[in-house]
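Below is a filled-in request sheet from our internal design queue. Each sheet records the structural input a requester submitted and the sequence that came back. We keep these sheets so that new team members can see what a complete request looks like end to end.

REQUESTER: design group, bay 2
PRIORITY: normal
MODE: inverse folding
CHAIN LENGTH: 473
BACKBONE (tokenized):
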């Protein structure tokens, strides 16, 4: 496929292959862009953003509704592409693709609701009553959307839909592993009738083109989802512009003595292994109070043992491959190293190519790298704690703070957890692996800054202008 920049489908100076992680086959080739392509994309986006800001909101909402309808029609193709390039099961990919239409329509609605506020200027001493003040909310201009591989549709749409819905131009830079879904989404917005210069999708290596995109002054806003390391680099390069960073995590789920252990184990078996654990809000750590520790491990083992690994297109597969064999090797090494330091491998961890058997690692020390560093693979590290205090300290005991969950039958313990755990999204009686597209979503600490979720993204992709009318003064 070609990439779409400056209003045209174009080749790049070089090409890069898109590989199916399950069987290693080449699915397609996409352009590997260079800094010159970035410059052309930004110049066109800047021009288009100037045109877009003077168009009525109702017009862009109509285009968004048309794009939503096209996304509804194209769910099967989108799901197939996601499963092929990312390796997630077709079942999971279909759930992901099925959210596209509603998400786009929601962004169309929120993007048309750019409310301002009336200002009580007469309360300022000496201002009198002949001045009227209010605010206007305006599109911020050019948005750079840089996305990771693990949700090639949802995480792209969470950026480009609110950007376009709110009247901006957008330059999308998808992950090198998963450019094809992003290009299909770009096609949807173009087919819906958006100005071709308003939507660019530039493919290639982030290391090669990322700096040119992040540092350019014509880009007013960077919306980035990816690792904390790349987020740090973008922050250093960005200069004066708006930044949203959705970064790495090591999400905890606490199970207290008074919890429904069966329910907790089921939710953690789902929340620790979906998309082969490659979810930023995956349950990486189960922090379990000593009274239910044994029962919890028994219940979790029974469920994880039933998870079937294999071909993402097979009906029977629960867990597909990781995004590459290299990633599977990295996760395998992290599990082994933790076991060498004294953790106990209860189940799984065997690797075949990019497939890794879902693992449970018990007796993991809170300071062990398997707790502290983001794993991004199909394993849950289980740690035993004596008390609620210890559980909260363990939950807070990493540099990250994206999502957290607690299972308890006690409302007071839930409220303590909600108040005391430093995470951007907290769940009582569920795991962090739950998200509605409308809710504010984003991390604290090294997990990021800013919020996504369509209304929040529209707010972050627009700017407030203060207006003062001076009458008879
Ligand atoms: P990554 O950081 O390697 O890459 C993310 C994107 O950044 C890719 O498009 C990549 O090409 C680009 N990039 C690389 N170097 C760049 C540079 N110097 N400048 C600009 N862009 C650059 O992440 P990944 O491996 O694709 O995804 C996994 C990571 O994403 C995990 O850390 C995961 O936690 C995180 N993630 C976070 C959230 C969240 O909501 N917090 C959601 C999903 C994934």
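RETURNED SEQUENCE:
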């Amino acid at each position: 496929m070609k990439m779409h920049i400056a209003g045209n489908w174009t080749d790049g100076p070089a090409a890069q292959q898109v590989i199916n992680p399950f069987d290693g086959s080449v699915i397609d080739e996409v352009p590997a862009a260079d800094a010159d392509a970035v410059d052309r994309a930004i110049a066109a986006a800047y021009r288009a953003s100037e045109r877009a800001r003077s168009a009525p909101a109702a017009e862009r909402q109509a285009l968004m509704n048309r794009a939503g309808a096209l996304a509804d029609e194209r769910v099967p193709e989108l799901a197939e592409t996601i499963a092929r390039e990312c390796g997630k099961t077709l079942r999971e990919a279909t759930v992901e693709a099925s959210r596209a239409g509603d998400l786009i329509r929601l962004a169309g609605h929120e993007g048309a609701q750019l409310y301002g506020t009336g200002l009580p200027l007469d309360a300022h001493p000496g201002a009198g009553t002949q001045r009227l003040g209010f605010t206007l909310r305006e599109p911020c201009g050019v948005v750079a959307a840089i996305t990771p591989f693990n949700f090639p549709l949802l995480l792209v749409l969470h950026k480009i839909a609110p950007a376009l819905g709110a009247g901006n131009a957008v330059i999308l830079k998808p992950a090198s592993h998963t450019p094809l879904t992003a290009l299909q989404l770009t096609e949807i917005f173009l087919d819906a009738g958006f100005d071709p210069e308003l939507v660019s999708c530039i493919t290639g290596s982030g290391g090669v083109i990322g700096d040119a995109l992040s540092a350019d002054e014509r880009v007013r806003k960077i919306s980035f989802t990816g690792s904390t390391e790349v987020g740090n680099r973008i922050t250093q390069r960005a200069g004066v512009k708006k930044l949203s960073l959705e970064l790495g995590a090591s999400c905890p789920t606490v199970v207290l003595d008074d919890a429904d252990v069966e329910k907790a184990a089921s939710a953690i078996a789902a929340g620790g292994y979906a998309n082969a654990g490659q979810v930023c809000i995956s349950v990486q750590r189960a922090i379990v109070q000593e009274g239910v520790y044994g029962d919890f491990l028994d219940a979790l083992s029974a469920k994880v043992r039933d998870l079937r690994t294999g071909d993402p297109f097979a009906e029977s597969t629960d867990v597909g491959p990781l995004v590459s064999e290299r990633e599977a090797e990295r996760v395998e090494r992290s599990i082994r190293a933790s076991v060498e330091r004294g953790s106990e491998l209860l189940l799984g961890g065997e690797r075949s190519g990019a497939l890794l058997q879902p693992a449970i690692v018990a007796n993991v020390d809170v300071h062990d790298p398997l707790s502290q560093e983001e794993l991004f693979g199909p394993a849950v590290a289980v740690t035993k704690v004596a008390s609620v205090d210890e559980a909260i300290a363990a939950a807070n005991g990493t540099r990250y703070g994206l999502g957290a969950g607690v299972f308890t039958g006690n409302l007071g313990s839930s409220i303590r957890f909600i108040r005391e755990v430093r995470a951007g999204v907290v769940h009582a009686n569920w795991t962090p692996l739950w998200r509605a597209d409308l809710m504010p979503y984003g991390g604290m600490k090294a997990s990021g800054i800013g919020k996504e979720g369509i209304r929040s993204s529209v707010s972050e992709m627009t700017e407030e202008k203060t207006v003062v009318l001076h009458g008879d003064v």
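SHEET NOTES:
- The chain has two domains: 3-247+447-469, 252-436.
- DSSP finds 16 helices and 24 strands in the chain.
FILED BY: M.R.
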